């Protein structure tokens, strides 16, 4: 599975989409108007500015960090939390008929432009729609093999006429052969949308294993380590843990949730797990430092090691490494980017202050 940083469409195409209010680009980029200081969805019905007065951003948080305010008409922060209608309809159709093959002609018949679909899936899933569909079918085959389905039947049910073709595709996707799949641990993943951009969540039967922003540079290495070091077979899908984290993230960003209860499973070294456990003890709306955590663990000279373990945390937000700052009060590094770290700390601080005010 390859995770790549999202790339914006060509400038001319974004200008066209903005002027024509093209809904196909919902969630793909945001428009920010220099003369008004406001940012919008591409399809906003407000009067369109001159193209030379517009900046384009991939994520809503980038607009906020550049000093722009959200448009009150199109509510781009709300839009950042949902896939566009045409994508939702397609995903519902896939769920209803998972064995259906979608050609470009069929997509066009449903009013979906294949190029726009490819671009949206590349940004939000880091793979094309057809690659996602193929991996999803292989994931269903993986589940069948785990439950005792023969490899021949799994291959046929996945639409493969050649058993060798199925084996090759299976091993390419999951880094294991179908014969070893019965002893592997499926790690299901799904895309989640947030006001800070798309995230990927991965969970197995014991709990949530990974939650990261899709543009995190280390994401590819993290996924490969889960596959190669811990034997996971990674596939698109859903389970109760993924549903739970989706709901809890929505409440967190709405300022309604200060502590996550989704079960967690944290593969890693003993020391890394100690550090992650210490991160979980940092109260909502407060911060700590590498030195303080090292002292808490009884290893006052291990600040650097604590920093490394903190950077290897795979569960953004839930295991709150964003609450760790430098000894001088600086934000220091954050895998999701310092603008996101600042956003999360502001969100928690504001929600905490509001709760305290209501308590009096």
Automatic annotation (TrEMBL):
What is the taxonomic lineage of the source species? Answer: Bacteria, Pseudomonadati, Pseudomonadota, Gammaproteobacteria, Pseudomonadales
Gene Ontology molecular function: DNA-binding transcription factor activity; methylated-DNA-[protein]-cysteine S-methyltransferase activity; sequence-specific DNA binding; zinc ion binding
Family per record: Belongs to the MGMT family.
> Per UniProt, where does Zn(2+) bind?
40, 44, 71, 74
Originating species: Pseudomonas hamedanensis
Q: Name one GO cellular component term.
A: cytoplasm
The protein, known as: Methylated-DNA--protein-cysteine methyltransferase
Q: Which residues form the HTH araC/xylS-type domain?
A: 111-184
The organism's place on the tree of life at top rank: Bacteria
Any Pfam family hit: Methyltransf_1N
- Cofactor(s) this protein requires: Zn(2+)
What the entry lists under PROSITE patterns is as follows: HTH_ARAC_FAMILY_2, MGMT
Active site residues of this protein: 40 (nucleophile), 321 (nucleophile), 321 (nucleophile)
Q: What role does it play?
A: Involved in the cellular defense against the biological effects of O6-methylguanine (O6-MeG) and O4-methylthymine (O4-MeT) in DNA. Repairs the methylated nucleobase in DNA by stoichiometrically transferring the methyl group to a cysteine residue in the enzyme. This is a suicide reaction: the enzyme is irreversibly inactivated.
Q: CDD domains of this UniProt entry?
A: ATase (cd06445)
- What InterPro entries does the record tag this protein with? Ada-like_dom_sf (IPR035451), Ada_DNA_repair_Zn-bd (IPR004026), Bifunct_regulatory_prot_Ada (IPR016221), Homeodomain-like_sf (IPR009057), HTH_AraC (IPR018060), MethylDNA_cys_MeTrfase_AS (IPR001497), MethylDNA_cys_MeTrfase_DNA-bd (IPR014048), MethylDNA_cys_MeTrfase_DNAb (IPR036217)
Catalytic activities: a 4-O-methyl-thymidine in DNA + L-cysteinyl-[protein] = a thymidine in DNA + S-methyl-L-cysteinyl-[protein]; a 6-O-methyl-2'-deoxyguanosine in DNA + L-cysteinyl-[protein] = S-methyl-L-cysteinyl-[protein] + a 2'-deoxyguanosine in DNA
User: Where, subcellularly, is it found?
Assistant: Cytoplasm
Name one process (GO BP) from the record. Answer: DNA alkylation repair
In the UniProt record, does the keyword Calcium occur? no
Protein EC: 2.1.1.63
As a miscellaneous remark, the entry gives: This enzyme catalyzes only one turnover and therefore is not strictly catalytic. According to one definition, an enzyme is a biocatalyst that acts repeatedly and over many reaction cycles.
């Amino acid at each position: 599975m390859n995770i790549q940083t999202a790339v914006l469409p060509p400038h001319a195409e974004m200008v066209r989409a903005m002027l024509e209010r093209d809904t196909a680009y919902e969630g793909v980029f945001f428009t920010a108007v220099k003369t008004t200081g406001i940012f919008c969805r591409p399809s906003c019905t407000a009067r369109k500015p001159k193209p030379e007065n517009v900046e384009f951003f991939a994520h809503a948080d980038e607009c906020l960090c550049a000093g722009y305010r959200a448009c009150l008409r199109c509510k781009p922060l709300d839009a950042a939390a949902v896939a566009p209608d045409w994508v939702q309809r397609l995903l519902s159709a896939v769920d209803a008929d998972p064995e259906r093959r979608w050609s470009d002609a069929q997509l066009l018949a449903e009013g979906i432009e294949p190029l726009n679909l490819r671009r949206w899936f590349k940004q939000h899933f880091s793979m094309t729609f057809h690659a996602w569909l193929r991996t999803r079918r292989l994931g269903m085959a993986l589940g069948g093999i785990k439950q005792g389905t023969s490899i021949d039947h799994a291959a046929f049910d996945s639409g493969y006429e050649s058993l060798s073709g199925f084996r090759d595709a299976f091993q390419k996707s999951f880094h294991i052969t179908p014969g070893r799949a019965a002893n592997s641990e499926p790690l299901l993943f799904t895309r989640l949308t947030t006001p800070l951009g798309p995230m990927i969540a991965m969970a197995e039967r014991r709990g949530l294993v990974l939650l990261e922003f899709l543009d995190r540079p280390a994401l590819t290495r993290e996924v490969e380590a889960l596959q190669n070091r811990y034997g996971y077979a990674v596939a698109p899908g859903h389970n109760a843990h993924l549903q739970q984290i989706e709901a809890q993230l929505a409440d967190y960003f709405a300022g309604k949730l200060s502590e996550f209860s989704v079960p967690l499973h944290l593969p890693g070294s003993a020391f890394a797990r100690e550090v992650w456990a210490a991160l979980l003890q940092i109260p909502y709306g407060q911060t700590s430092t590498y030195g303080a955590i090292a002292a808490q663990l009884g290893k006052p000279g291990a600040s650097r090691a604590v920093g490394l373990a903190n950077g290897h945390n795979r569960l953004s937000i839930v295991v709150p490494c964003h609450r760790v700052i430098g000894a001088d009060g600086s934000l220091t590094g954050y895998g999701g980017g310092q603008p996101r770290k600042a956003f999360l700390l502001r969100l928690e601080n504001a929600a905490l202050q509001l709760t305290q005010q209501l308590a009096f």
